Amino acid sequence: MAKIYKSKGNIKSIISLVLIVVLAAVIIYCVWFVADTLKHTQDEETLAATEKAIIKSAVQCYALEGQYPTGIAYLEDNYGLTLNRDKYVYSYESIGANMVPIVKVYPLN
């Protein structure tokens, strides 16, 4: 009879251990998922802020010179715009001298 009680205790210990491991795995996954979601959101906000900064420089150029620049390099050279070309690809489409350009920023990876 003592052996049966002892084996039931071992089974309970094993079940408890398995539940603890499963619970720890679920918690780790949830933390990873939240961190990944926050990183993705932050990346999107960075892209949007960069696009706004480029457009703001273009609008400043328009206000001072009367026309939007034809390329993004002009903004870098004359309006202090600094771009991280190692991390992002920039699309600057000039529609016309009096039309706000279409700006898109894409991550390299």
Task: Give the overall silhouette.
Answer: rod-shaped
Pick out the low-confidence regions. none
Name the structural class.
Answer: mainly alpha
Q: How many strands? A: 2
Rounded average pLDDT: 90
Largest sheet: 2 strands, antiparallel
Radius of gyration: 28 Å
Strand order of the largest sheet: 1-2
H/E series:
HHEE
Tell me what portion of residues adopts beta-strand conformation: 5-15%
Distance between the termini: 65 Å
How many helices? The count is 2
What percent of residues adopt helix (DSSP H or I)?
55-70%
Structure description:
With 109 residues, the protein is mainly alpha-helical. The chain has helices spanning 2-65, 72-78, and strands at residues 88-93, 102-107. It has a two-stranded antiparallel sheet with strand order 1-2. A hairpin with an 8-residue loop joins strand 1 and strand 2. The protein is rod-shaped. The mean pLDDT is 90.
SSE layout:
Layout (H helix, E strand, L loop, with lengths): L1 H64 L6 H7 L9 E6 L8 E6 L2
Antiparallel strand pairs: 1-2
Keywords:
11% strand; 2 helices; 109 residues; mainly alpha; single chain; two-stranded antiparallel ribbon
